Amino acid sequence: MLVESLQMNLYSYSSLLGRRIVKCEPNLKYYISQSLKTNTRNIAVFASSSEPNGTSISVSGAHSSWSSPICSDFPISGCMEQVMVEYLFGRKKATEVAHYVWKQVVQKGDAVVDATCGNGYDTLALLKLVADKTQRGRVYGMDVQNSALESTSSLLDQFASPDEKELVELFIMSHSQMEDIVPNDMAVRLVAFNLGYLPGGDKKIITKSETTLLALEAAKRILAPGGLISIVTYVGHPGGREEFEKIEDFASILPVESWNCCKLQTLNRPLAPMLMFLFKK
């Protein structure tokens, strides 16, 4: 089977890396596919490492049959296996892996939410995924810091066309308030979180577990079937470990009938960022 073949390949890669160790849990499934009743798009998730050493990936709710979209009409050069191998060898960051996964979920004309704009790189990536000539796509971006929205706006000025920029709405507010800015009849395909503090900003201003949990509850309500909540979380700053644990608890109790949840975690670099995907069937 393809899953077994991928597992063997990953073990082979780890043997070449010496100290890099890939731990694959017994119930691991590498593919997360949408229910045929709701959507035909697929999301592929593989076990590997973005850091110089190994990774553990956990998947909850992996009971059904899975199908692979790999390299089929993939909108970038290469394919997901290549991305994850580069992640394994330390040539891709967690955020880059997240962007590749988004491309398996988001289509032109979709509505998406950047719950933490930061310096705007996720906002720009999401915009490029939804923008087309129909002008139907929408990116709703938010951040509590005005400097973050200024950086995001500046980045869009540099790399987005005037027509593309019309698809973006930026709000200075907490991610817990996302339901206030997304229209009630809008089906959201993806909600992206990049937590912690603003790179280059005040490290004392961080996302908090209380508001992040409220934001995840809101994201769960507005997300369309076949949609994804993508989370990059950090534990190296004060409050980061608590926030990660709260998110992990949140994801762990989502019903397996309607959600598949996975986590990529470095085994021997405990302060490395962690990547989580919560997929709504």
Automatic annotation (TrEMBL):
Against InterPro entries, the record matches this protein to: MnmM_MeTrfase, SAM-dependent_MTases_sf
Return any one Pfam family short name: rRNA_methylase
UniProt cross-references to SUPFAM superfamilies, sorted A to Z: S-adenosyl-L-methionine-dependent methyltransferases
Q: Which PANTHER family match?
A: S-ADENOSYL-L-METHIONINE-DEPENDENT METHYLTRANSFERASES SUPERFAMILY PROTEIN, TRNA (MNM(5)S(2)U34)-METHYLTRANSFERASE, CHLOROPLASTIC
Instruction: Name the chain's protein.
Output: rRNA methylase YtqB
This protein's species is: Anisodus tanguticus
